[in-house]
Amino acid sequence: MKIILIGYGRMGHEIEQAAKEKGHEVVLCIDKENKDELKPGIDADVAIEFTSPDTAADNIKKAIDLGIPVVSGSTGWLDRFEEVTSYCNSHNGAFLYSSNFSIGVNVLFHLNTELARIMGMFADYKVFIEEKHHIRKLDAPSGTAVTLAEEIIRQHNGYEAWKADDDGSNIPEKHIPVQSVREGTIPGIHSVLWESDIDSICLRHEAKGRKGFAFGSILAAEFLVGKKGVFSMRDVLGF
Predict the structure, then answer these.
(1) CB–CB of 160/150 below 8 Å?
(2) Cα maximum dimension of the chain
(3) Which residue in 22, 69, 80, 137 has the most C-beta neighbors within 10 A?
(4) Domains of the chain, first to last
């Protein structure tokens, strides 16, 4: 598999190493300095995009214009998600998005869905989400935390929105508090806590490094090659 990396920061370097370990070839690395090199004539099977909230959507659309399937893990740009998915479908492209490519986090997503559905039967429990990341992470809350919160809202009639919880106060009724912590070099910790007066239930995932994200994105790229349409890690993992 021939891969283009769009975004060559720490995550891009990690993906490059993972690709080589799995026997794939990285044919082009695109960053701010050489973004014009993403142009017609490139021999590639797939692009993997990890950039910034303000550039992700346009990067994805450019890859689709070139007829290259694109996997994206950028977060903070989902106000343009419907625009990008419509663009992909209208241009007969292939696009796969996940806020987190870690296999463990996607298992967490699956469990979160089921637990939220069950907890809808027990009004005494209130939910709280906390995410912790390194100090250089640009978006807060993380895309993973937002994914967790939005799935709870879909499954549980007691919630209609989420709200960033910076100080533990002023959370409106039927809103899920989502707290973000930025410390040191933490790769990522996500916790979903259901609390009542008598007990607590917690789902928690802690990444030990970026390798899980990198190998998950390669798995997604392998899945996407040869397909048309819009996909997610649920499709890759068969959930």
Answers:
(1) no
(2) 63
(3) 69
(4) 2-101+211-237 (3.40.50.720), 103-206 (3.30.360.10)
Residue of 2, 110, 137, 227 marked catalytic: 137
pLDDT digits (tens, 9 = 90+) for 54-82: 999 999 999 999 999 999 999 889 999 99
24 belongs to the catalytic site = no
SS in 3 state form for the chain? CEEEEECCCHHHHHHHHHHHHCCCEEEEEECHHHHHHCCCCCCCCEEEECCCCCCHHHHHHHHHHCCCCEEECCCCCHHHHHHHHHHHHHCCCEEEECCCCCHHHHHHHHHHHHHHHHHCCCCCCEEEEEEEECCCCCCCCCHHHHHHHHHHHHHCCCCCEEEECCCCCCCCCCEEEEEEEECCCCCCEEEEEEECCCCEEEEEEECCCCHHHHHHHHHHHHHHCCCCEEECHHHHHCC
Identified catalytic residue from 61, 62, 132, 133: 133
Structure tokens at 85: 């998915």
